[in-house]
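Technical note accompanying the year-one report. For the benefit of new consortium partners, we illustrate the data format agreed upon in the data management plan: each record pairs a sequence with a structure-token string. No post-processing was applied to the example shown here.
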Amino acid sequence: MFDKRFVPRQVVASGGNRWDWALLPLVLALLFALAWGGSQMARPYELGETLPISLDPWMLPYYLLRTTLRMFLALGASLVFSCLFAVVATKYRSAEKVLVPLLDILQSIPILGFLSITVTGFIALFPGNLLGVECAAIFAIFTSQAWNMAFSLYQSLRTVPAELREAAQVFQLSGWQRFWRLELPFAMPGLLWNMMMSMSGGWFFVVASEAISVSNQNIKLPGVGSYIAMAIEARDLGAIGWAIAGMLIGITLYDQLFFRPLIAWADKFKFEEGSSEDSPNSWLLTWLRRTDRIKHAVHRVTGLLDRSVALFRRDHDGTSIKARPQPANPTAVRIWDAIVAAAVLVAVLWLTRFIHTEVGWREVGHVFLLGLYTMLRVLVLIALAALVWVPIGVWIGMNPRWAGRLQGVAQFMAAFPANLMFPVAVLFIVRWHLNPNIWLAPLMVLGTQWYLLFNVIAGASSVPTELRYAAQNLGLKGWLMWRRYLLPAVFPSFVTGAITASGGSWNASIVAEYVTWGDTTLKAAGLGSYIAEMTAIGDFPRIALGIGVMCVFVMGMNHFVWRRLYDLAENRMHF
């Protein structure tokens, strides 16, 4: 993953020293802000204590620091989870049979479901300390980031070109070396774009994660999410405007200081023989590369990583018997399949008993019918979003200069809390007497359509430069160019974006099909409104039924639609 190109040749010493002294105040300020924010997150706390949240705009920088720190902690946990999931799922077929459906289920569970289960446990884990509530909030943000990144890395590891795999075999790389030297670098461009999408997607759920209800107590953690929640309760449009401005500043800062340097650095991992004439750039990365002390620190870190990778090398060569591929033990495979089938059978029996005693079969039929309504909306919306964002994403990805200019704009649009648009939709529908079953549907895709855009941009930006030249030399134009060149190039990334956008739309249906603003409530017939209604009245058996049916629909779509497209992308539609 790391090579010496990361550290360019040394420039003149005077320039390097000047950059050192210019960089020192920035580093000290960041370290102080992180240390201060971390100390505030771990202060003593008694359950029932009211944390003061002010709508004063001067408090927004502090709230923004707390929220951003939570989101980056969740992003780090999501990255570790994604690596573990993708490696295990792609290396072991038996584990893949369980992990991929499990990820489908986790993706379809609403964030409120995770909060209701985990908040009490985290508070009990850290009694008398705010760290328990902070961990619950970070975990909630983690659930809005991890699934997208895990699917992206899983898709990349399954579509590593055959010639690269053969090269890894020729060089006798161990599994650990192959991951760090081949698979993770190959997946890095797409993974970084999905990390950006995950950070932006976390803003959609930041209100729910920072304004927590537990044990009949409402806990509002200091942060932008709590600020927005209080502004909505007070109907303070000015405070909402200040919150949006604060979000814009925060997104611009971490885009310039974190994601843009990583995107420019990861451009060297593109799978191509030549070099791109117009590659991404970052002023901060150029600054760091001209700093002597940063270069020395990078040399030391990369040296340690190189030595750690060498520790896990193979202890045999390619002629050894150990080098021969070992087929799976059929007996062990049958035993594992039997265990999985038994677990599924037990779950089905338990579910049948639950339905018979708690809700009844007629209610199940009604809920499945509502699920069909929501599924129809999801499929139509994903198709319409694909028609709009696939061409735009391909154009942005093929033009690195515009990608750099629009990167921050796309992150802000993806991070904009879609629930702030719900009051406008309610007023519009009521004013023009429109049908809520139709006009509430677009709210489901407001926050999830960006998964498509970011993944298509990642796929298009990873297309080898020589392939672009070949398409130009052959004179490919119009539909022939899309069918033979562009669509196969972005198809694996599109499938990943479609899976996450679909799962996110199912999740968003809970708030999009049942919208309230003041005394006005609009409801569209669907599974999301059913779960929202049952949650409002506290009918837990029907809440569980609604979430269970949603999991069934999401898993069914992933298995019969998206998984087949995954196989097509792995076998035919990729370069």
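Partners are asked to follow this layout when depositing records. DSSP finds 22 helices and four strands in the chain.
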